[in-house]
Amino acid sequence: MIKHVGHGYVCDTKTSLLFPETMMDDFKALPENKIAQMSKLRYLRKEQQMRRRDKKLTSIKLWGYGLITCPGTCDYCYKHLEEASNPCIAEEQQVTPAYLDKVMKETKEFRTDDTYISFFGSSIFNHPQRHDIIETLKTNNDKYLTLSFVDDMMLTEEKFKDSMCFIEEVASDPFIKTIMLYITLDLGSTSRNSKYLSIDNEEIIQRGKRIVDRFGTNNKVCIVFKSNFGKLTNMDKFRRDVDEFSQLPCVLMFSPVSHDVYEPTVEMMDEIIAYIGERKTHVMFRGEILLNTGEASKRFFEAFKSTEPQMMELTNGVFCDNAIITCQAYSTMLSVRNNTTSACCYDYLSENENGKDSFVLSEVNEADKDKLVTLPEHCLVCDNVGVCGQCVPRRAVYKCTEHPALMYWETYIWERRCREYLDGVLDK
Ligand code: SF4
Ligand code: SF4
Fold first, then answer.
1. Residues 300 and 316 in one domain
2. For a substitution probing ligand 2, which of 325, 394, 400 has the most ligand atoms within 8 Å of its CB?
3. Distance, CA 425 to ligand 1 centroid (Å)?
């Protein structure tokens, strides 16, 4: 699919080519086998990268309580629909400082001080050994530590207050370089809630504001508020919330709910794109749109934005996508849970006890490699295949060909990335 992206350029979603409009005839003359080859280029590169010996871990995702332990009951969440929401966390689900220490030692050769640690999976703020976990991470780093807390704020009021004190304490430690608070607020939602904790949507929004009041001017803390928008997003509220939060010292990020029932319609997506797209935005690698809010965004980019070039110049003025694929499995990321590690953020790939086995693609994990680079039939024939950012194993089980809005988003994200790149490169 060809899109006009300004500066006299067009981009194509099948091959990931970005080229001057004047070369349209050359593009149309490309033989089919060349097009098919280009559309698979990023998967070949992903395979090569997974096998590299000198690759480095850029992030470790630390699931304090295993994978599915959210006490939230938001109507549009897949966990709730699968009846997997749970307010009780069993002790054996908790990651221990001793296991974390073992994994940190096993992966030492692949880490640097810049490898950042992201706390995922229910709130680390509830973890009884959270202080020891931070100490364990510190003793395994030489110079400094960068942390991110990915959190839903599904906490009792008392725990929420505790969590603010914990963040403050960690941020005041001279060994901690930066903390990203990546909090899901879902601007525009009227049904984000936890019936177990008696928290409603308004409470979540208020907590967002309290976080900004407490940390908005702390230059070690970047606040990122994530919004998943979908069929239940109330557009009037969305506009009001975005207007209000975009004035605050925080970063706003948006992406669609990917769900059979609650995904947005294409029309809604157009409305949202029109509303946030008219402001200064950036595309993040997971296909989220980041609304640039000035100083707060600058701090975020300095600490967390990938420094990899977005495009590769093939020949004079002709570019192609330089992103391998969005998935970091076996490339730059390791996921640590209670007594197991995995190359995957979620549960698509194998689990190992030894951290190294989940980063080095060995014989044992050839099956994982196939899951990561072998595309299902519907993707092979899809117009977006050269630029799609969807998780490959998930593509096999969740066909986005049956979800027009998600296909639409993939095309939009690619078009935005090209525009952003050209604005940066050609406007200078
Ligand atoms: S396989 Fe999918 S879920 Fe797992 S790390 Fe890659 S993108 Fe994430
Ligand atoms: S996941 Fe969807 S958009 Fe991506 S390549 Fe497959 S069919 Fe196309």
1. no
2. 400
3. 31
